[in-house]
Recover the amino acids of this structure.
């Protein structure tokens, strides 16, 4: 080996051994990101048959096809959940089921898939109903980043509620990179949710969203501030993000912050609003419109 490269390799190896934060050379219990993304793709084929994966199924073949794909998911996901639970067992600060429950956790997740598919079907309908540019629900499934983000969120949220470490975040951050929509897997989202356009949407971990809600691009449902303990460390596990009731619309660029901020049923939050207090049901929250000046161009840039 080139002596200069060997010097660099030795320096990197020494740093790896000394660095607890980035030292996982022997951590075979870490979930495999690529395997998880492949599993998510198999799940998408199950949830949206014909749109992804095999495209020539006859109706009488659907049940057998789904059973075959489920068996593959069961095997692959159980292996990754075992890794996730092993990771949790190695870190006392993480609360997770014991490793020997990986099979039961996987079974619980798979049993929830019919309800996940029902919710996603309602999300697809909400996308079509909420966007006059949509020509068919098929367009929402194949084209809309909001549906991609919600598919991943719906499956990631189920594993989050089953207390599986790492895997929900791996799935969700992949969706974030693909769509520009950042929904923490801990967020609780009701039926018929639509993210229109979606780029720049951020929905925090303890957000609670009711049924038939709609948010536009650039919306943040975030934390107002982070409580700290007596050692100055951020407190975890507290309600930090807002609650939206049913039938709430939040327009582009609005920011709603705080765990004690409750937006009542039927509210509309106007674009660009910065909101840190609750709004009673059936109200509109809007700011002062900016002053617009129109002047002759005179050829100036």
């Amino acid at each position: 080996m080139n002596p200069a490269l060997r010097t660099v390799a030795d320096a990197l190896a020494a740093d790896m051994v000394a660095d607890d934060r980035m030292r996982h050379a022997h951590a075979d219990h870490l979930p495999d990101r690529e395997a998880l993304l492949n599993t998510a793709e198999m799940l998408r084929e199950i949830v949206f048959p014909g749109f992804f994966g095999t495209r020539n199924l006859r109706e009488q073949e659907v049940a057998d096809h789904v059973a075959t794909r489920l068996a593959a998911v069961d095997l692959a996901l159980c292996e990754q959940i075992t890794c996730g639970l092993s990771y949790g067992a190695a870190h006392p600060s993480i609360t997770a089921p014991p490793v020997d429950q990986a099979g039961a956790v996987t079974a619980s997740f798979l049993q929830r898939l019919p309800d996940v598919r029902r919710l996603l079907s309602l999300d697809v309908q909400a996308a079509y109903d909420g966007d006059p540019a949509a020509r068919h629900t098929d367009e929402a499934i194949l084209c809309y980043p909001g549906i991609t983000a919600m598919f991943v969120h719906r499956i990631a949220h189920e594993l989050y509620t089953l207390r599986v470490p790492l895997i929900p975040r791996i799935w969700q951050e992949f969706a974030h990179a693909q769509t520009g929509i950042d929904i923490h897997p801990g967020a609780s989202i009701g039926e018929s949710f639509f993210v229109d356009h979606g780029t720049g949407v951020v929905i925090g971990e303890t957000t609670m969203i009711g049924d038939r809600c709609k948010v536009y691009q650039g919306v943040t449902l975030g934390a107002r501030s982070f409580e700290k303990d007596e050692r100055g460390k951020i407190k975890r596990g507290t309600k930090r993000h807002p609650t939206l009731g049913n039938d709430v619309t939040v327009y582009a660029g609005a920011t709603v912050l705080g765990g004690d901020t409750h937006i009542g049923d039927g509210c509309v939050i106007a674009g660009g609003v910065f909101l840190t207090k609750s709004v009673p049901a059936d109200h509109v929250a809007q700011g002062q419109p900016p002053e617009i000046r129109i002047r002759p161009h005179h050829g100036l840039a």
